[in-house]
User: Fold these one by one.
Assistant:
Number 1:
Amino acid sequence: MNTYIASVLDDLQDRYPHQPEFLQAAQEMLPSLEVVFERHPEYRDSALLERFVEPERAVLFRVPWVDDGGQVRVNRGYRVQFSSAIGPYKGGLRFHPSVTLGMLKFLALEQTLKNSLTGLPIGGAKGGADFNPRAKSDGEVMRFCQSFMTELVRHIGPRLDIPAGDIGVGAREIGFLFGQYKRLVARHEGAMTGKGMGYGGSQARTEATGYGLMYLVKTMLDNHSLSPEGMRAVISGSGNVAIYAAQKAAQMGVHVIAMSDSEGFILDGEGIDLSCIKNLKLTERARISEYPLRVGRGNFHPGANGIWQITCDLALPCATQNELDEAAATALIRNGVKAVAEGANMPATLAASRAFQDAGVLFMPGKAANAGGVAVSALEMAQNAGFTSWTFDKVDRELQAVMDRIYHRVAHTAARYGKAGDFILGANVAGFLQVADAMMAQGVV
Ligand code: NDP
Ligand code: 2IT
């Protein structure tokens, strides 16, 4: 590795030893940029990489709230505003007990390059709290969201920073958060995306990440003389991304035979009954283990990671980071997987993604594959700013066009830098170049 990049990575390791996910994301990203720094010595002269790897701003705040028993609880809330080089800060909020500043720095760094890849004018951010919405009443979730927004409101706005959903933040949470935002600023404005259709949301935002993932997978397969039709797919997770990836996959003739949640996976050789999954996970907030009882077929297996032992053509990790390790990758390769595309952010470990590439398996990293969600968020911002709303078909067409452009941008960049087929390098370089050029144009800020 080039000594400049190695020294920036070493510095990060010394400074942030307690932020393993952030270091992992930097280790995946920075080596790809070697080819860029060889061609652009001026970047180094202006310490571009040292500036790029530090968030422009990160806020950390306490979130006090009262549970149904009258007890006062305290969580930690965050917003990491990583880069505003190409547009206002944009990225989701995650509510999960595992959330830390380091995790959100990794997600905000990924988001910065992802948002750049969409070709839309959005910078990168991420936020959230170590709050677990599971098993909380609607009233408790509402009070938590109101307290969280009472602080966050100082840091966001339609031209400043526009949060959205992520793990643990869906339609219910966005509604409560937006309601409190509106009450505090006394304006109905597009400071959040993923809003409900009746109050400023966009058609197709709910479906966008999963649908976009499958649009990009289809383009990738088409460009390698393959077709999704008739393929068997395994999709981890059963949340927003996984459900709509499964729905679009089924529409494309893919047989989705397995899905999961954090406790285990279901295998149904006849094809997953998605209406049952939607009822269980979205409406009832129940466990996926109930699926076999409800539909009268399929089996539940405890342990989420076992899903990667299933023989399939297409593997779509759509749950969380580091859910697919090297052993899982080896099993998938041995069982003949043809393509892997990340619906989640960094679900494959570094060793797993290298194993796929070494074995000649098509591998598309999350910052390209799951960019459809934030792309439609940007379209929601455009609709809000224009006081208008577009039809489902219009948004869906735009989404398909964005995903098609992303695939070609990633593939062409990899080829242009002498690494045809290396979509990790293609995505990192293509995403970085636009941010870097914007930073150079704006001086030392
Ligand atoms: P949801 O909260 O809707 O669903 C998350 C799913 O992943 C659930 O099935 C959950 O299981 C499972 N899961 C969560 N944590 C773990 C864990 N530690 N181990 C195993 N399984 C886990 O989130 P989303 O579908 O929105 O997000 C999924 C992934 O996609 C995340 O990586 C997110 O960052 C990424 N993403 C999301 C976008 C969006 O628009 N929502 C856009 C782009 C990427 P359980 O029900 O048991 O908790
Ligand atoms: O990881 C992601 O891209 C998201 N959670 C969506 C972000 C957004 O602003 O729509």
Number 2:
Amino acid sequence: MTLIVEKFGGTSVGSVERINAVADHLIEKHQAGEQLVVVVSAMSGETNRLIKLAHEICAKPPAREMDVLVSTGEQVTIALLAMALQQRGTQARSYTGGQVSIKTDRVHSKARILGIDSAKILEDLALGRIVVVAGFQGIDDGGNITTLGRGGSDTTAVAVAAAINAAECRIYTDVDGIYTTDPRVVPEARRLKSITAEEMLELASLGAKVLQTRSVEFANKYRVPLRVLSSFEKGEGTLITYDDETNSMEAPLISGIAFQRDEAKLTIRGIPDHPGVAHTVLGPISESHINVDVILQNASEKGFTDLTFTVPRGDYEASLEILQRLVGELNAQDVKGDDKIAKISVVGVGMRSHSGVANTMFKTLADNDINIQMISTSEIKISVIIDESKLETAVQALHAAFGLDKESG
Ligand code: ASP
Ligand code: MG
């Protein structure tokens, strides 16, 4: 018997029909010899509906009660799915997070899983039952219900898979896998057969929001074989692999292109250069809980330097105000800003063993008359900041230049 964890997101269990379809699918797998633990999300729209209700009662709902409230969404789904399975003559049991001891820390609404007591799950599996577990929720050491952050059912599934040492954790969702880039921008975008967790983390944090980032971190840590696939059509989906399993000489140079539109850039110019400048400028920004992304400090000339950095567009005005205040304090020349920029990143572990990726990227942008405003690199990623109006052209050109529209191994 193969031990498998399958997770179904909100749209996959969004109606009674969908829940029945999931039950049929599970029974097929079960009869084919798989031992199944199923993790489900709340029916689509339900978590949002609950959050809205809370805000109709109070502007700032208490965190503990909020978790008691939003965790009910998943409790509805597990019960309905277990009923659907039993209705079809298959033994099944539903459990809330607390009932299978998904222990978390005490941080309401973004709790971290500390451990799972797998004994009960394994006992039920041994009795031939399909085990249905509520995603997104856990319990702290005081017995309080906690939740894992939006999209947290992915993390529940991965954590359960790690705890019972499952052969595979399958995440069923409304897309059929991870794509080379957003198909809405590049119609030629292709589904990847596999991608390393490391690449997936770079792409996830850049906006490929198929999996909760934390679930990929968790999978990476415990080497959980993870697959993303569609609950609406049959297919292999995308398998998430681990670096030590990948021969990077054979890996495609670039696996994907991610982009972010809503970025802004700020420059403080002519700052007298001495130790502590970056700290003086960026300290107040981070104290205001603004996330700085790309940072660039120019080589100083005649004792003066410029510092440029990017922030989410929603934090542009607040950042501008902070810098304007600092101009006097630092004796700097002035502040400039642009809130119409975008970031594009090409990601691939193949970069480690091949040179020339940066060159291809820069040449492609030049050939398309796109000006690069900032560049930042990591071991498996090159990002550039460009004018937002050129975003589509740039992504399309890069996708073609790296041959991402062509089938690879
Ligand atoms: N129901 C939760 C949400 O909507 C958790 C999940 O779906 O993964 O964020
Ligand atoms: Mg999701």
